[in-house]
Please model this.
Amino acid sequence: MQQQYPFKEIEKNSQEYWEKSRLFIAEDKSDKPKYYCLSMFPYPSGKLHMGHVRNYTIGDVLSRFHRMRGYNVMQPMGWDAFGLPAENAAIANKTAPAAWTFDNIATMKTQLKQLGLAVDWEREFATCTPEYYKWEQWLFTELYKKDLIYKKTATVNWDPVDGTVLANEQVIDGKGWRSGAEIEKRDIPQYFMRITAYADELLDDLDKLDGWPEQVKTMQRNWIGKSDGCEVEFPVVGENSNLKVYTTRPDTLMGATYVAVAAEHALATKAAENNPTLQAFIKECKLGSVAEADVATAEKKGMDTGLFVTHPLNGEKLPVWVANYVLISYGDGAVMAVPAHDERDFEFAEKYELPIKAVIKNTDDDTLPMTEHGVLFNSAQFDGLDFEAAAEAISSALSAKNQGKKRTQYRLRDWGVSRQRYWGCPIPIIHCDKCGEVTVPTDQLPVVLPTDVTMDGVGSPIKKDPSFYETTCPTCGNAATRETDTLDTFFESSWYFARHTSHDNDNAMLDERANYWLPVDQYIGGIEHAILHLLYARFFNKLMRDVGLLKNDEPFKNLLTQGMVLKDGAKMSKSKGNTVDPQTLIDRYGADTARLFMMFAAPPEQSLEWADSGIQGAHRFLKRLWSFSYDNREYAYIENQGAQQQGVSLIDAPTSISNAWREINLTLEQANHDYARQQINTIVSASMKMLNTLEKIPMSGDDWKSSSYLTYYAECLQQSMSILLRILAPITPHISHELWKVLGYGEEILNSSWPEADKAAMVQNTIDYVIQVNGKLRGNLTVSSDTTKDAIEKMVVVEPCVTKFLVDGASVRKIIVVPKKLINVVIG
RNA sequence: GCCGGGAUGGCGGAAUUGGUAGACGCACGGGAUUCAAAAUCCCGCGUUGGUGACAACGUGGGGGUUCGAUUCCCCCUCCCGGCACCA
Model:
C-alpha cells in the first residue's frame, strides 16, 4: 500500500478489473429482483459537460447501491444521435453530420468510461444507425395503418431569404439567425401523431405514478389541460354560417361584448378579401416566430373586421375582431371576449375602446377585471346563479337553440413529427401519383439515410438527391417519389428505453426481454424534460403496448428529475457556450473526486451553481481517507488483532471508543435514511462525519497504552471502515474498491452486503433536553433516559434559567415536553 | 403572457417534515510544522453590543395561525426551467 493516494493507478486498475470480470453485464434471467436504472441518454455534442457528469453519476450511485442491496441491475448507455447541432457543425466544418456524430460518440464514450460507470456497454446503440431507426420506421408504418398518424397543414417558421424552415431556437427576436431576415409563419403539410387520442389515458395514468415528483405530474396535467367548458355558436350577420368558439367560462356569456378570431381564421381571411388594410394587418400578425412564448408576450393588437355576429341568447350584435393574442391552435381559433372577467380581453377592450359589461360578482369590491367565480347579475333569467348552476343553465339554453353544447377540451395538440431537415430518420412513405401515399413495406425497411453528403446551409441534401427520392411504388410498381422529410428527433428518444432490453434483435423491435426489464425502475434526467420528452415516451409506451410489443402501461416507475448545472446563473449548455470541461477535473483529481464533488455540491433535484472552489475539498477528503487507512493499516486490516474472534463488544469498550462507535452508527442510520430518499449530498456529509469521528479517537494517554484498548480500537476501526467504505462505494467506487481489497475485507466491495446500524450501540442512558421559555432557548437539562414527563416538569421549573423569568407576578402557565428534544415553559 | 420550481452566514448547502437554525464542506483569520513555499495538522468563524457570562436581532419582503414557524396560510419581489421545430 502506498502512502500517497494514487488515484490514477487505482482508477485505471479498478476499471480494468470491472471490465475483465464482466461485473456490469446484466443477466436477462435472475433469481434476484431486477432493477433497471436508466439515465437520459446524451446527445453527442462534442465532449462531456458537467450536466452529463451529474446525471450519470446519480444513475451510477443508484445502480451500485441497488447492486449491493442484492438486485439484478441493468444500467445501459446509448446515444441520441440525430439532431440539429450536427447539421450546424457540418455546415461550419464542411464535414458530414454522420462523421461528426460518430467522432463525438467516440470521444464521449472514452470520457464516460473514465468516470467508472457501472454500465453494461454491450447494450449500447446510437439512434442514427439503420439498425435502430429501422424499427421506428416499422412502427411508423404500423401506426399509419391504424390511422394514428395522419397528414395536415401546420405552421412553421419560414426564412424567406434562406428559403428554409427554421427551428424556434433559430429565430431570434423574430429574425432568422443566419440571414437576419424577418421570419414569416407559413403553412405546410406535415405528418401528425394522434396523441390526443391518448389524452385521457395519459392524464389518468399520472395517478398511478407514485414514484414521480408531484411537480412533474402537475406540469403534465396542465400541459394536457383537460377542461370542461362549452362551445358557443354565434350566427354571422348577413351570412349563412356560424362562428364557433370554445369557452371554459359559459357563466360569463351574457357579458360578452365582442368576439375575436386568430389571424389565420377563415373568417378573417374572408373579411379581408376586399379590405386591404385588414389584409396588411393579417400579414403583420403572420410575422415573427410560431413559438407560443413569442406570441403571448407580443403587444396585444387587433383590428375590426367590420363583420358582426349575433349573441345566441340576448340577440345583441357583437363586432368581430382579428386579434394577435388568439391562438389558432387552441380550441377553435376564436374566442368570445368578456372584458369584465378576463385579463387579456380587458386589456384589449380598454385599448380599442370596446364595451365592458360586468356580469359576475363575488365580493363588494367591483374592480375589473374580476376573473374569479361568483354569482351572476345583469344576465336576465340567469341572475343569482353561481358558477356551476350558470354553466349548466346556459349550456342547456344553448343546446335547446342548437347553438352550442358542453364540450371537453384539451390543451394538448396532436404531435407534428415532420421535419424538413436532413439529419434525422427518413419518414417511410412513398408518394405515388396513382396510389397516393403508400407506407414502405416491412421487407423494404429500413429506408436508409445517405450519410455521404455535403451540407451547404440551404435545405436538406436528400431533397436534392434523386438517388434518394426516386423510387417505385410498392403497390403498383410505377415510378414514385420518397418522402424527404425526416422525423422529429423526439421520436428516437421516445422508445430507446425499451430497445436497451432487446438491443441485438434483428428480427423484431422488441422481444420478451422487454417484459422482464420494463418498466424502468429508476429514470434520471434533467427537469427541462419534464413535459415533452417524458410525455412522448409515455405515449410511445402505450402505442407499443397497443401493437402488442409490451405489457406495461407506463415506461418509468420512479423518476428523479435532476436540477440544472448552472454557470454564472445560466444553464450550462453547448448552445450557450458556458460549459466547463470535466476532463481537466478528471485528469487532475481523478474520477472519484469529480463524482464526490458533484454529489456533494447540491441535492440531486436542485440546480447546482458551478464553482471551481470546493473540488479541492472533495479531493482533500479522499486523500485523508487514504492516509487514515494507510496510517492505521495494521489495526484496520481485518485479519490483525483477532478482536472479533475474542468476542469483543464495542458497547463495553472504553468510553472514547464506545462513543465513537455510537456516533458511527448514528451517522450510518442517517446515511441509510438519505440513500432511501436519494439525497446524496448528505450521504457524502455522513461519510465525512464518520472519518472525522474515527480521526478523533484518542491515540495517546494512559488508555492507549493498555493492550485491551488496542484490541477495541482495532475492532472499532475494522467495523467502522467496513461501514464507511460501503457507504462510499456507490459514490466513489474506485477508492472504495481498492481500500476494501487492501484492507482484506474481500475481493469486490460490490459483492458484499449493505451495512445496517447496530441499534444496541445507539442506546443512550441520558438525554439532553433544551429548555425554552416562551419559545426562546434559555438552557439545557440532562436527565436519565427513564425520567417521566412529570419528573421532568418538576425539575425544569426550579432551573435558574426558568426561575429568573418568574418575577413581577409572572407564573408558569403551561409546560410542553417534546420527548427526547425540548421543554418549553410558557410563562405569563 | 401562461404553467412548474426556487430564495437560509462571505459561498455551496443541512435541519429525519411544526420543536436547539447554520450539520458537512468551501473561503477567510490565527497558530504548529518548514530554511522557505506547497501539502498537512490544531483553533476560530451568522450579525450587533459586551473583557465576559450573556443579551438583542436573524432563513428574499410584508401580514397571519401557533406555546413554538426555514417548515403551514394569504399577499408581494426577484431568479431559474418549460411553452409543442434546441435536446
